[in-house]
Protein backbone atom coordinates (compact mmCIF):
# COMPACT_ATOMS: atom_id res chain seq x y z
CA UNK A 1 0.00 0.00 0.00
CA UNK A 2 1.25 3.48 -0.84
CA UNK A 3 1.43 6.02 1.94
CA UNK A 4 -1.07 8.85 2.36
CA UNK A 5 -0.39 12.16 0.63
CA UNK A 6 0.47 13.75 3.97
CA UNK A 7 2.93 11.04 4.96
CA UNK A 8 4.56 11.17 1.52
CA UNK A 9 5.19 14.90 1.82
CA UNK A 10 6.42 14.42 5.37
CA UNK A 11 8.91 11.81 4.15
CA UNK A 12 10.13 14.13 1.37
CA UNK A 13 10.74 16.96 3.82
CA UNK A 14 11.86 15.16 6.98
CA UNK A 15 15.49 16.04 7.77
CA UNK A 16 18.15 13.39 7.14
CA UNK A 17 20.77 14.28 9.72
CA UNK A 18 24.36 13.80 8.66
CA UNK A 19 27.16 13.04 11.05
CA UNK A 20 30.30 15.17 11.21
CA UNK A 21 32.21 12.15 9.85
CA UNK A 22 29.93 11.96 6.78
CA UNK A 23 30.36 15.65 6.02
CA UNK A 24 34.13 15.38 6.42
CA UNK A 25 34.17 12.32 4.13
CA UNK A 26 32.34 14.24 1.42
CA UNK A 27 34.59 17.27 1.81
CA UNK A 28 37.68 15.10 1.36
CA UNK A 29 36.52 12.70 -1.36
CA UNK A 30 33.74 14.82 -2.95
CA UNK A 31 31.30 11.94 -3.15
CA UNK A 32 29.26 10.00 -0.64
CA UNK A 33 26.64 7.25 -0.70
CA UNK A 34 23.87 7.38 1.92
CA UNK A 35 21.59 4.47 2.74
CA UNK A 36 17.87 4.62 3.56
CA UNK A 37 17.31 8.13 2.29
CA UNK A 38 13.87 7.08 1.06
CA UNK A 39 11.80 3.98 1.79
CA UNK A 40 10.47 1.55 -0.81
CA UNK A 41 6.97 3.04 -0.88
CA UNK A 42 8.28 6.52 -1.70
CA UNK A 43 10.62 5.21 -4.41
CA UNK A 44 7.92 3.02 -5.98
CA UNK A 45 5.38 5.85 -5.99
CA UNK A 46 7.57 8.40 -7.73
CA UNK A 47 9.21 5.83 -9.99
CA UNK A 48 5.80 5.09 -11.47
CA UNK A 49 5.10 8.76 -12.21
CA UNK A 50 8.61 9.55 -13.48
CA UNK A 51 8.65 6.46 -15.73
CA UNK A 52 5.38 7.46 -17.39
CA UNK A 53 6.54 11.04 -17.91
CA UNK A 54 9.86 9.91 -19.41
CA UNK A 55 7.95 7.66 -21.79
CA UNK A 56 5.72 10.58 -22.77
CA UNK A 57 8.51 13.14 -23.26
CA UNK A 58 11.24 10.94 -24.75
CA UNK A 59 12.13 11.91 -28.33
CA UNK A 60 14.94 9.37 -28.87
CA UNK A 61 13.57 6.49 -30.94
CA UNK A 62 16.64 5.37 -32.91
CA UNK A 63 17.78 1.79 -32.28
CA UNK A 64 20.76 1.60 -29.93
CA UNK A 65 23.10 0.47 -32.69
CA UNK A 66 22.38 3.62 -34.73
CA UNK A 67 23.17 6.12 -31.94
CA UNK A 68 26.39 7.90 -30.96
CA UNK A 69 28.11 7.02 -27.69
CA UNK A 70 26.34 9.79 -25.76
CA UNK A 71 22.87 8.63 -26.75
CA UNK A 72 23.71 4.96 -26.25
CA UNK A 73 24.48 5.77 -22.61
CA UNK A 74 21.01 6.86 -21.51
CA UNK A 75 17.69 8.44 -22.27
CA UNK A 76 17.54 11.79 -20.52
CA UNK A 77 14.74 14.21 -19.76
CA UNK A 78 15.75 17.45 -18.04
CA UNK A 79 13.67 19.77 -15.84
CA UNK A 80 11.01 17.10 -15.80
CA UNK A 81 9.61 18.83 -12.68
CA UNK A 82 8.16 21.52 -14.95
CA UNK A 83 5.91 18.90 -16.58
CA UNK A 84 4.37 17.32 -13.49
CA UNK A 85 3.20 18.66 -10.13
CA UNK A 86 3.79 15.23 -8.59
CA UNK A 87 7.36 15.01 -9.85
CA UNK A 88 7.91 18.58 -8.64
CA UNK A 89 7.14 17.35 -5.10
CA UNK A 90 9.97 14.86 -5.40
CA UNK A 91 12.48 17.20 -7.05
CA UNK A 92 11.77 19.95 -4.50
CA UNK A 93 12.28 17.56 -1.56
CA UNK A 94 13.74 19.50 1.35
CA UNK A 95 15.19 16.23 2.65
CA UNK A 96 17.52 15.94 -0.34
CA UNK A 97 18.17 19.68 -0.62
CA UNK A 98 19.23 19.88 3.04
CA UNK A 99 21.66 17.00 2.55
CA UNK A 100 23.15 18.87 -0.43
CA UNK A 101 23.46 22.06 1.60
CA UNK A 102 24.99 20.30 4.59
CA UNK A 103 27.51 18.39 2.48
CA UNK A 104 28.69 21.55 0.74
CA UNK A 105 28.62 23.50 4.01
CA UNK A 106 26.65 26.39 2.53
CA UNK A 107 23.70 28.36 3.89
CA UNK A 108 21.24 27.00 1.34
CA UNK A 109 20.84 25.63 -2.18
CA UNK A 110 19.03 26.38 -5.40
CA UNK A 111 18.18 23.86 -8.04
CA UNK A 112 20.24 24.13 -11.22
CA UNK A 113 18.14 21.54 -13.03
CA UNK A 114 16.90 17.99 -12.64
CA UNK A 115 17.55 15.09 -14.98
CA UNK A 116 15.90 11.71 -15.40
CA UNK A 117 18.58 9.29 -16.63
CA UNK A 118 17.22 5.98 -17.92
CA UNK A 119 19.79 3.49 -19.16
CA UNK A 120 17.99 1.10 -21.48
CA UNK A 121 18.37 -2.69 -21.41
CA UNK A 122 21.81 -3.40 -22.93
CA UNK A 123 22.44 0.35 -23.16
CA UNK A 124 26.05 1.50 -23.36
CA UNK A 125 28.45 2.78 -20.73
CA UNK A 126 28.62 6.43 -19.69
CA UNK A 127 32.18 7.72 -20.32
CA UNK A 128 34.34 9.42 -17.71
CA UNK A 129 33.49 13.11 -17.36
CA UNK A 130 33.04 15.98 -14.92
CA UNK A 131 29.61 17.62 -14.99
CA UNK A 132 30.81 21.15 -14.35
CA UNK A 133 32.42 21.26 -17.79
CA UNK A 134 28.86 22.02 -18.93
CA UNK A 135 27.94 24.60 -16.28
CA UNK A 136 28.55 28.41 -16.40
CA UNK A 137 28.89 28.58 -12.61
CA UNK A 138 31.45 30.74 -10.81
CA UNK A 139 32.36 28.35 -7.98
CA UNK A 140 32.62 24.64 -7.27
CA UNK A 141 29.77 24.75 -4.73
CA UNK A 142 27.68 22.29 -6.74
CA UNK A 143 26.46 18.78 -6.01
CA UNK A 144 24.37 16.19 -7.83
CA UNK A 145 22.04 13.78 -6.04
CA UNK A 146 21.85 10.47 -7.96
CA UNK A 147 18.72 8.57 -6.92
CA UNK A 148 18.23 5.06 -8.35
CA UNK A 149 14.55 4.19 -8.62
CA UNK A 150 15.26 0.51 -8.16
CA UNK A 151 17.93 -1.65 -6.58
CA UNK A 152 20.92 -1.26 -8.89
CA UNK A 153 23.41 -4.17 -9.04
CA UNK A 154 26.75 -3.89 -10.82
CA UNK A 155 25.47 -5.41 -14.07
CA UNK A 156 22.86 -2.63 -14.33
CA UNK A 157 25.50 0.11 -14.57
CA UNK A 158 25.50 2.04 -11.29
CA UNK A 159 27.37 5.32 -10.96
CA UNK A 160 31.13 4.97 -10.39
CA UNK A 161 33.35 7.59 -8.77
CA UNK A 162 37.01 8.52 -8.84
CA UNK A 163 37.61 9.57 -5.25
CA UNK A 164 39.37 12.94 -4.79
CA UNK A 165 39.55 13.46 -8.57
CA UNK A 166 38.09 16.96 -8.16
CA UNK A 167 41.72 17.88 -7.47
CA UNK A 168 42.74 16.91 -11.02
CA UNK A 169 42.81 19.77 -13.52
CA UNK A 170 43.39 17.63 -16.63
CA UNK A 171 40.23 16.53 -18.44
CA UNK A 172 38.08 19.45 -17.34
CA UNK A 173 37.83 20.62 -20.96
CA UNK A 174 36.33 17.36 -22.26
CA UNK A 175 32.69 16.70 -23.05
CA UNK A 176 31.24 13.18 -22.68
CA UNK A 177 32.74 11.17 -25.53
CA UNK A 178 35.01 8.27 -26.49
CA UNK A 179 37.91 10.70 -26.06
CA UNK A 180 36.90 11.62 -22.52
CA UNK A 181 36.67 7.94 -21.54
CA UNK A 182 40.20 7.18 -22.78
CA UNK A 183 42.00 10.40 -21.85
CA UNK A 184 40.48 10.86 -18.40
CA UNK A 185 40.96 7.20 -17.50
CA UNK A 186 44.66 7.48 -18.35
CA UNK A 187 45.05 10.62 -16.23
CA UNK A 188 43.19 9.07 -13.30
CA UNK A 189 45.46 6.02 -13.39
CA UNK A 190 48.55 8.20 -13.46
CA UNK A 191 47.21 10.12 -10.48
CA UNK A 192 46.45 6.88 -8.62
CA UNK A 193 42.90 7.96 -7.79
CA UNK A 194 40.75 5.23 -6.21
CA UNK A 195 37.85 4.07 -8.39
CA UNK A 196 34.66 3.27 -6.48
CA UNK A 197 32.43 0.66 -8.14
CA UNK A 198 29.60 -0.52 -5.90
CA UNK A 199 25.94 -1.54 -6.28
CA UNK A 200 23.15 0.64 -4.88
CA UNK A 201 20.54 -0.64 -2.48
CA UNK A 202 16.95 0.52 -2.88
CA UNK A 203 16.66 3.88 -1.14
CA UNK A 204 20.41 4.55 -1.31
CA UNK A 205 21.37 7.93 -2.79
CA UNK A 206 24.78 9.23 -3.84
CA UNK A 207 26.04 12.81 -3.97
CA UNK A 208 29.01 14.01 -5.99
CA UNK A 209 30.49 17.42 -6.67
CA UNK A 210 30.56 19.07 -10.08
CA UNK A 211 34.28 18.60 -10.72
CA UNK A 212 34.47 14.99 -9.51
CA UNK A 213 35.14 12.61 -12.39
CA UNK A 214 32.64 9.76 -12.66
CA UNK A 215 31.24 7.24 -15.12
CA UNK A 216 28.76 4.35 -15.27
CA UNK A 217 29.01 0.89 -16.75
CA UNK A 218 26.74 -0.56 -19.42
CA UNK A 219 23.34 -1.96 -18.47
CA UNK A 220 23.86 -5.66 -19.14
CA UNK A 221 20.37 -6.63 -17.93
CA UNK A 222 17.01 -6.88 -19.65
CA UNK A 223 15.55 -4.18 -17.38
CA UNK A 224 15.62 -0.40 -17.65
CA UNK A 225 17.96 1.27 -15.15
CA UNK A 226 15.85 4.17 -13.93
CA UNK A 227 17.50 7.06 -12.10
CA UNK A 228 16.40 10.54 -11.06
CA UNK A 229 19.00 13.22 -10.44
CA UNK A 230 18.88 16.71 -8.99
CA UNK A 231 21.70 19.20 -9.43
CA UNK A 232 22.08 21.78 -6.66
CA UNK A 233 24.16 24.92 -6.40
CA UNK A 234 24.94 27.31 -3.57
CA UNK A 235 21.95 29.67 -3.21
CA UNK A 236 24.39 32.56 -3.80
CA UNK A 237 25.89 31.03 -6.96
CA UNK A 238 26.98 33.64 -9.50
CA UNK A 239 26.78 33.20 -13.27
CA UNK A 240 30.21 33.38 -14.91
CA UNK A 241 31.25 34.16 -18.46
CA UNK A 242 30.81 30.81 -20.28
CA UNK A 243 34.01 28.98 -21.19
CA UNK A 244 32.54 26.94 -24.06
CA UNK A 245 29.47 26.54 -26.25
CA UNK A 246 27.96 23.97 -23.90
CA UNK A 247 28.08 26.50 -21.05
CA UNK A 248 26.49 29.12 -23.29
CA UNK A 249 23.68 26.70 -24.09
CA UNK A 250 23.23 25.83 -20.40
CA UNK A 251 22.99 29.53 -19.51
CA UNK A 252 20.15 30.06 -21.96
CA UNK A 253 18.31 26.85 -21.07
CA UNK A 254 18.79 26.39 -17.32
CA UNK A 255 19.39 29.99 -16.12
CA UNK A 256 17.28 32.05 -18.54
CA UNK A 257 17.53 35.76 -17.78
CA UNK A 258 20.45 35.43 -15.37
CA UNK A 259 23.22 38.01 -15.81
CA UNK A 260 26.96 37.43 -15.76
CA UNK A 261 28.46 38.44 -12.44
CA UNK A 262 25.13 38.25 -10.59
CA UNK A 263 23.43 35.62 -8.43
CA UNK A 264 21.42 33.12 -10.50
CA UNK A 265 17.95 33.97 -9.26
CA UNK A 266 15.46 32.95 -11.94
CA UNK A 267 11.97 31.38 -11.75
CA UNK A 268 13.42 27.95 -12.59
CA UNK A 269 16.30 28.22 -10.09
CA UNK A 270 14.41 28.64 -6.81
CA UNK A 271 15.97 28.18 -3.38
CA UNK A 272 14.92 24.70 -2.21
CA UNK A 273 16.50 24.80 1.22
CA UNK A 274 17.85 27.56 3.43
CA UNK A 275 19.46 27.18 6.84
CA UNK A 276 17.45 29.34 9.25
CA UNK A 277 19.66 28.47 12.26
CA UNK A 278 16.58 27.70 14.36
From TrEMBL:
* A GO molecular-function descriptor: dioxygenase activity
User: Keyword annotations for this protein?
Assistant: Dioxygenase, Oxidoreductase
Its cofactor is: Fe(2+)
In Pfam terms, one family for this protein is: PhyH
- What is the protein's name according to its record? Phytanoyl-CoA dioxygenase family protein
Quick check: keyword Nucleotidyltransferase in the entry? no
Which segments cross the bilayer? none
- Is this entry keyworded Cell membrane? no
Amino acid sequence: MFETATSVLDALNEPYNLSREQIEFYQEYRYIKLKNVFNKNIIDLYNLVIREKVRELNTMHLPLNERDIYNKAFLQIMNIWTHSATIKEFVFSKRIAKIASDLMQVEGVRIYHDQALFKEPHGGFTPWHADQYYWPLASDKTVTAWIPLQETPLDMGPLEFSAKSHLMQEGRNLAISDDSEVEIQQKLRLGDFQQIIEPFELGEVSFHSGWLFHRAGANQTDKMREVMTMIYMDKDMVLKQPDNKNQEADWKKWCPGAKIGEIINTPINPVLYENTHD
